[in-house]
Design a protein that fits this description.
The chain has 9 helices and 23 strands. By secondary structure, the protein is α+β, with helices and mostly antiparallel strands. It has a 15-stranded mixed beta sheet that branches. A 3-stranded mixed beta sheet has the order 9-12-11, with helices on one face. The two termini are 18 Å apart.
Length: 453
């Protein structure tokens, strides 16, 4: 089916007629401690995993080609003290020429070498031969993990303390800010600029005490507060560091699209429908619209989860257990209704609802119990975005997916859970200097509606 026969024709044409997306080339300088700076012959690929659900920062792997002699003499001996400067330079739309009208983007990283090997040992030598003994150049492939310099410090930092008369959200934001400002040795491009927190916490009640045991890692603080200190959101919590900001958001809240100023709209389009076009996205203020083409994977096990784990939950409110367990009469008869809490968040079409006891049978944290329900009641879809600009998507971004079936357009509303990004040269080999980026997106969605006839 061609684009002229699809109900999403106008939406697709609006996107593909956007100004052509910028092209980039990549350069890297490897700093071998203070001994020597080395420029790889070629950056082969950059692969990134941005896991907004389970992770706390980007995982970036870079494959490059270096000269064997430089690897033996400088890179391997200094493998515990390697840093790098990665430069992203814009190029002209149709050529490899550097576009000097736009500034390059430079970022420093700590390098961790994967599968570090002393090639000299395998050759029967303890150390590499002096440079003058080499008679030719040999290329050698290396894979590095690129670690943000701020993340390198924060991932090892413990927190702890007792906080009085504060809400859980206030404690989380203040501790992220305090620790971030205490980082040492970072320039302005690597320092932490603040915390971007979703402004609608479900728990706004100050607690008498919030106790954070000393030794809790900073990157685990949000989960600790959500599970053990009253909770913040009713739909799970995500806490992710990206582009000099901490992002805090409800993981599985599928209602945020209508009220968030920053949104992502994805238009599903088969590869046969989508015309050959360089533009696959359009930005309108803080709203981003992209075209996803190719196969879409869809997993909906929400009904199975409702049957096996329940579409509701019951637990005993700890604060009522001592004062309200009896009916208040002189007989002192027990009345469980005064201490029990029960929720059914999404009724099943069959009418068969199941609200078992929580694993935490006595608790005062309904927000964490509701978060478990929110995770069970969604679906996941995976899709592809070609010629992508992943910088347009932020952690936990509200999203909707539009697709066509039987001449009707349907809408799935949810949030972005993770991204897998691949950057490669647009042609195989070591000649081309133009790189293209493809992105795989995983969404958590919960609503299916017919929105267009």
């Amino acid at each position: 089916m061609g684009i002229e026969n699809t109900a999403l024709k106008k939406d697709i044409q609006w996107v593909i007629t956007a100004p052509l997306a910028p092209q980039y080339t990549y350069e890297m300088t490897i700093h071998c401690s203070t001994v020597k700076d080395i420029t790889p012959l070629r950056i082969i690929s950059i692969d990134s995993l941005l896991d907004f659900e389970e992770g706390f920062a980007d995982e970036v792997m870079l494959d490059c080609m270096v000269i064997r002699e430089e690897y033996d003499q400088y890179i391997y001996p200094n493998r515990d003290a390697l840093t790098a400067t990665l430069i992203q330079r814009p190029t002209s739309v149709n050529t490899d020429r550097i576009d000097t009208s736009r500034p390059p983007i430079a970022k420093q990283y700590r390098l961790s070498m994967k599968d570090a090997t002393n090639q000299s040992v395998g050759a029967g030598q303890f150390m590499a031969s002096p440079p003058e003994k080499y008679t030719g150049l040999t290329f050698y492939p290396i894979q590095f993990q690129l670690i943000d310099l701020a993340v390198e410090q924060m991932m090892l930092m413990p927190v702890g303390g007792i906080f009085r008369k504060k809400t859980p959200a206030e404690v989380l934001k203040s501790e992220l800010t305090r620790i971030s400002h205490s980082l040492q040795g970072l320039d302005s491009g690597d320092s932490v600029n603040g915390v971007e927190m979703e402004p609608w916490p479900a728990n706004t009640q100050p607690r008498e005490h919030i106790v954070i045991p000393h030794g809790v890692r900073l990157v685990d603080l949000a989960d600790h507060i959500q599970v053990k200190e009253g909770g913040i959101y009713d739909a799970g919590i995500g806490c992710y560091y990206q582009r000099n900001l901490w992002w805090v958001y409800p993981l599985y809240d599928t209602t945020r699209f209508a009220k968030s100023p920053r949104t992502l709209t994805i238009i599903g389009c088969s590869s046969t429908t989508l015309p050959a076009a360089d533009a696959t996205y359009r930005v309108d203020g803080t709203a981003v619209t992209i075209i996803a083409n190719g196969k879409v994977n869809h997993l909906d096990d929400s009904d199975q989860r409702a049957i096996n784990q329940g579409n509701g939950v019951r637990f005993v409110r700890a604060q009522n257990l001592m004062d309200k367990f009896t009916d208040g009469t002189t007989k002192g008869e027990a009345d469980s209704q005064n201490v029990m809490a029960s929720f059914v968040t999404q009724t099943r079409d069959s009418g068969k609802n199941y609200a078992p006891f929580s694993d935490n049978r006595i608790t005062d944290n309904p927000h964490q119990e509701l978060s478990k329900l929110a995770k069970r009641q969604g679906q996941r879809i995976q899709l592809n975005w070609d010629r992508a600009d992943p910088r347009l998507i932020v952690p936990g971004m509200p999203a909707r997916y539009l697709y066509e079936a039987d001449d009707l357009v349907y809408e799935l509303v949810g949030v972005v859970l993770n991204m897998q990004i691949q950057t490669r040269t647009d042609q195989p080999g070591m000649i081309s200097n133009r790189y293209v980026t493809g992105c795989g997106l995983t969404l958590f969605v919960n609503t299916i509606r017919n929105v267009k006839a």
